[in-house]
Design a protein that fits this description.
The longest helix is centred in the last third of the chain and has 24 residues, at 367-390. Helix content is 36%, strand content 22%. Helix 3 links the parallel strand 4 (80-84) and strand 5. By secondary structure, it is an alpha/beta fold. Helix 8 (258-266) runs parallel beside helix 10 (295-308) and helix 11 packs parallel to helix 13 (367-390). The radius of gyration is 23 Å and the shape is globular. The structure holds S-adenosyl-L-homocysteine, iron/sulfur cluster and FE3-S4 cluster. Residues 169, 171-173, 176, 178-179, 213-214, 252 line the site of iron/sulfur cluster.
């Protein structure tokens, strides 16, 4: 009988991708995915360490799994508990010590070793006399996990496929844990990316999001042996599959080269949306964050992007209350937001992360001040998102239906500009690509009626 694998994923899209790949690795060992935690024989908690709140969730979630394990044991069975992701990488030892019932802790660069780690964990469990230790693998192996993960797509991707083309980060922004949890920048060769894209498309993907912590820093080996840029790679993918919808995330302003900007004006399948985190509009704060560019540089990039693709929708990430941020610095952020006009954005209160230079800076900003700035910023961003969305009412948009809505008969999809679009149409199905006439808009979504079918699922 197949064993049931339950995966709980926190954090970014890279974790969503990794969770699917872990399921692929464990498939041949007889594990089939389940969506119901209650019947799981194994659980993987794929964690995020980016902010304190995200990391805290792990230990409370583990508490619940400990109880499930005890229950299962009383009934003569067991539940294997594995912790993966960025908390595993950053706090692996602590997890093993604080939560001895955890069988396995595995960092993001070691997922291809899951079968042998699991076998080891099972041996330990068989010999455990009350107190044992879980297995820990948080090394950055010499071999790339991408070369050792199975090729088949065991978990159908659904209409939107994620494809990791780059991993890791060498930027070392002073607030961020990612360079420590994901390791150095690594770019997969174009041939591997193209082959994986073909597999996703064969398995039903109609949109593919290329992923990387610094996706536009991708500089992999090209098909001709030379080093390609992301612009060149997108050209290749779009030429092969012009009818697919292509996206890439997350980009860094420093890596936004002219070739990539040009691609936005030229590639029919490249969606007119870009998530380009700026974090702050103050040069002093950007310097303290080690972002490597000024506010002005960001504005120039936006200008060039809009020249290449006038309707491009922009999104960003912001941090309020970074150490040393003054009222004037914050005002500069508000000014940048007003100048750019964002279609959507994420904003966070600065969270001091252990081991990062930011956490040691002397001039930490009081929590109330960071919160106050966050509310003001969010109000402005919300206003802009609402205005952007309202501008769509009456227009017809190409929507890929990709998930069920909250109510029966309701389906959700994404516009080219990454807006959520709600439709009520019993004849439509997930995977359909349809033209939708937009009838209403809010800050977070659009709704409308199907005006025509572009492609059936
Ligand atoms: N690699 C991407 C995203 C990194 S994490 C990039 O370079 O932009 C996603 C977002 O989380 C960041 O853009 C940043 O806005 C936020 N973030 C990261 N570390 C944080 C911290 N210590 N406190 C608050 N927000 C943080
Ligand atoms: Fe973190 Fe900066 Fe790297 Fe993004 S570029 S992952 S924010 S260190
Ligand atoms: Fe979180 Fe790691 Fe992604 S810290 S945001 S899961 S890279």
């Amino acid at each position: 009988m197949a064993k049931k694998l339950f995966i709980k994923t926190y954090g970014c899209q890279m974790n969503v991708y990794d969770s699917a790949r872990m399921a692929d690795v464990l498939g041949p060992l007889g594990y089939a995915k389940t969506e119901t935690p209650d019947d799981a024989d194994m659980v993987i908690i794929n964690t995020c360490h980016i902010r304190e709140k995200a990391a805290e969730k792990v230990f409370s979630e583990l508490g619940q799994w400990r109880l499930r394990k005890l229950e299962a044991r009383q009934a003569g069975g067991d539940v294997t508990i594995a912790v993966a992701g960025c908390v595993a990488q950053a706090e692996g030892e602590e997890i093993i010590n604080r939560a001895p019932f955890v069988d396995l802790v595995v960092g993001p660069q070691a997922y291809h070793r899951l079968p042998e780690l699991l076998a080891k964990a099972e041996r330990v469990r068989a010999t455990k006399t009350g107190k044992g230790r879980g297995i820990l693998d948080t090394e950055f192996p010499v071999e790339s996990k991408f070369d050792h993960l199975p090729e088949q797509v065991a978990t159908p991707p659904g209409p939107v496929g994620f494809l990791a083309i780059q991993e890791g980060c060498d930027k070392f922004c002073t607030f961020c844990v990612v360079p420590y949890t994901r390791g150095a920048e690594y770019s997969r060769p174009a041939s591997a990316v193209l082959a994986e894209a073909e597999r996703l498309i064969a398995a039903g993907a109609r949109e593919i999001a290329l992923l990387g912590q610094n996706v536009n820093a991708w500089h992999g080996e090209g098909l001709d042996g030379s080093t390609w840029s992301l612009g060149r790679l997108l050209r290749e993918l779009n030429d092969r599959h012009p009818d697919l919808r292509w996206r890439y995330t997350t980009s860094h302003p420093r890596e936004m080269d002219d070739d990539l900007i040009k691609a936005h004006g030229e590639l029919s399948g490249l969606m007119p949306f870009l998530h380009l985190p700026v974090q702050s509009g103050s040069d002093a704060v950007l310097r303290a964050m080690n972002r490597g560019h000024k506010a002005e540089d960001y504005l120039r990039i936006v200008e060039k992007l809009r020249a290449a693709r006038p309707d491009i929708a922009l999104s960003s990430d912001f941090i309020t209350g970074f150490p040393g941020e003054t009222d004037r610095d914050f005002e500069a952020t508000m000014a940048l937001v007003r100048e750019v006009g964002f279609a959507s954005a994420y904003s966070f209160k600065y969270s001091a992360r252990p081991g990062t230079p930011g956490s040691l800076m002397p001039n930490q900003v009081p929590d109330e001040v960071s919160s106050e700035r966050l509310y003001a910023l969010q109000a402005l961003l919300m206003e802009q998102a609402t205005a952007f969305n309202r501008g769509m009412v009456g227009r017809q948009l190409d929507v890929l239906l990709d998930r069920p809505g909250r109510h029966p008969g309701q389906l959700l999809g994404r516009s080219p500009y990454m807006q959520s679009v709600v439709i009520n149409d019993s004849a439509a199905a997930i995977g359909d690509r349809v033209t939708v006439t937009i009838t209403a808009a809010s800050a977070s979504s659009l709704s409308g009626e199907i005006a025509g079918q572009l492609e059936a699922a």
